[in-house]
UniProtKB/TrEMBL annotation:
InterPro entries: Ig-like_fold, PKD_dom_sf. SUPFAM superfamilies: PKD domain. This is SprB repeat-containing protein.
Amino acid sequence: MFFITISVFASKAVSAQSVGDYRSIASGNWTNTSIWQVYNGTSWVSATGYPGQSTGTNDVYIQGGYSVTLTSNISNTLNSLTVGDGTGATDNFYIGNTSSLQTELVTIENGGLVEWTANKDFSLPSGAAFVVNSGGTLATDNPCSASKRLIIGSTTYSTCNGNGSGIYSFQDINDSGGTIAVNPTSNGPICEGETLNLYSNPSGAGSSSATYSWSATGPSGYSYSSSSENPIITGLIEGSYTYTVTISDGTISNTKSVDVTVNGAPSVVLQPQDQETFKGTNGTFFITSSNADTFQWQVSMDNGANYSNISDGSAYSGTQTENLTVITPDMNKNGYLFRVLVSNVGSSCNTPITSDAATLTVKSGSVVTNRGVTYRVNKN
């Protein structure tokens, strides 16, 4: 028997666990409940049904050196099927009869093997991807036959020997890392006003000459369309966006989405204003900001040529808030300039924004006397 070891695509961690995940603990037929464990949110427990027997199946893993044979149609949806855990003996998924899975993704990982043991069809729904990652293997001889068919939707995508007429062989699938697929990513999250870069990350047989169709939803009725492989988008406002891309080779397509967050850039809505105060009387500067969580007030003692950070103490309070108090300033602070740096360290928009500068004017208090006034006191 001859197998091809292939590479491409990014591995999915088998150790990730979510409620409704299944894993193999023995070899046998897919519908044999005793070969499965299910994750209940706390621990792995014995399954009371096989994956896809009822609704609620999440990710399914064939691992531990076990072999699982599929010989029937599984009617309920699976999130994904992963064959191979990258350790120990080979993990096997056999197609033993006409069968199907309702999943959008089948992945052969390192240490995994998928093999047709009968001249039968294995079907996936329209838009599904069959991915072969580094260290995974797809059998190409048992012996090879055009009757061993991978069907996606209603289309025969691949047969073991290809059989011409634009149908890919299992060898083509191996060489290309799977069926045609996209795995969209972006440079998000970004700040409002920054450029968004989208990447379709195509793979699989037929992807080199594929076409692309992007669409999107977002705030305020936002919509978008593009036929570029990797679109570049500007002018986005704050909010949450979903970009969806479909790749097609003219016969088979695959659709995936990526979520993008555009964070509002920090800004100073109300700038600090010039303040006048008397010597020994507190002076106050304040701002109103948006999308900011960090503040740093600065002072210039040379008419704006240089600024330095200030901190709370005997001279100032509120130096890292929107409201700065200059405590009982003396005449030396007359003409000092104050400004604040505003940023949002909790988001991608962490480049500080500088407010306008405001001037502190300190006046000396004047004493009014009445020495020139003569008071007359009347007798009782």
